[in-house]
Design brief:
Layout (H helix, E strand, L loop, with lengths): L7 E2 L1 H5 L1 H15 L1 E5 L5 H15 L3 H5 L11 E3 L16 E6 L24 H26 L8 H4 L5 E7 L13 E4 L5 E5 L6 E4 L5 E3 L7 E5 L1 H6 L9 E3 L11 E8 L6 E2 L3 H5 L8 E2 H11 L6
Parallel strand pairs: 1-2
Antiparallel strand pairs: 2-10, 3-4, 4-5, 5-12, 6-11, 7-10, 7-12, 8-9, 8-11, 13-14
Helix pairs in contact: 2-5, 3-5
Length: 313
């Protein structure tokens, strides 16, 4: 574990909110990332989701393709291997993935732009297992934003009504085994920043995640077992005028000894409500933050989905 990612114990939040908020804020300011231990997401929920993930990606290609919604920007359901690219990169990432989105209440005004998640008929426990993990990470993410708010000298519940119906996504990622050497210079996931407010990432069985420190050095993120990796996304960076940075990260190809093992990873992308106007906070501007033109969360999302090839311009 590198010194840059000193784990922050979540029980500290219950014991001393100010101390936890300060530790989280320091880590975010330094690297855009933080490692949280002792989090409240149940191990059974994590294990059940991983079993469902492995079962889904083991399905034949034609079975998975039934859940592919290209016209919807692939924001729900399945996205085939080699579809997404990092912003500014022509080469596609070496992955396939599934998106579970928020279950909206009847009559929600967001239904026009947020589809339901398709039900997977081939795997009995898939829908329930993925929904349980979505809900757990959504709840925990909202708690972490209370600490972010305190660090920014805002009220603890500042973010609560700004993310409660956000277009958040649980992504089930599968990087298939590399039976032959990958193309020279390729990576499993190209260097990129996340679009959203914060990302909550469950540790993968296989290594590969690297973060670009502001010094220019790539740092491996190898959290201890049972930890969650949290990082700031572009929406939070914009909202804080860059005070909390969205840091470039990537997933590098494995060593030859590990290349024939698949890699599964499960990020949860927490989003603002779609009609929320992202405009730099005055307190962050007073700190030296940089203002950018105001933009709604939905417009920002669509702009970035075009950048990464999930929505075709």
């Amino acid at each position: 574990m590198t010194q840059y990612f000193e784990p922050i114990p979540y029980p500290l939040w219950r014991a001393d909110k100010a101390a936890f908020a300060a530790a989280l804020g320091r880590s975010f300011r330094e690297t855009g990332f933080a490692v949280i231990t002792g989090h409240p997401v149940a191990q059974k929920t994590i294990d059940d989701n991983l079993a469902a993930t492995k079962a889904f990606f083991a399905l034949p290609g034609e079975a998975k393709e039934k859940y592919h919604d290209a016209p919807g920007g692939r924001q729900r359901g399945y996205t085939p291997f080699g579809t997404e690219n990092a912003k500014g990169q022509a080469q596609a990432d070496l992955k396939e993935f599934w998106h579970t989105g928020r279950a909206l209440p009847p009559g929600s005004p967001y239904r026009d732009t947020m589809k339901d998640t398709p039900s997977v008929s081939e795997i009995a426990d898939f829908d329930g297992s993925t929904r349980a993990l979505f809900n757990s990470l959504d709840t925990f993410g909202a708690e972490l934003l209370k600490a972010v708010a305190l660090h920014l000298e805002l009220s603890e519940y500042w973010f609560s009504d700004k993310v409660n119906f956000g277009n958040s996504i649980l992504r089930l990622l599968h990087y298939p085994p590399q039976m032959d050497p990958p193309p020279e210079g390729s990576v499993r996931a190209g260097a990129h920043e996340d679009i959203n407010v914060i990302t909550l990432l469950l540790g993968a069985e296989e290594a590969g995640l690297e973060v670009k420190h502001r010094s220019g050095k790539w740092l491996g993120v190898n959290p201890p077992p049972g930890a969650l990796v949290i990082n700031c996304g572009d929406m939070l960076q914009r909202y804080t005028g860059g005070v909390l940075p969205s840091t470039t990260h990537r997933v590098v190809n494995p060593s030859p000894a590990r290349s024939r093992f698949p890699r599964y990873s499960t990020p949860f992308f927490l989003h603002f409500n779609q009609d929320f106007l992202i405009e730099a906070l005055p307190g962050c501007l007073a700190e030296g933050g940089k203002a950018e033109p105001p933009i709604t969360a939905q417009d920002f999302l669509m702009e970035r989905l075009r950048d990464i090839g999930l929505v075709k311009a």
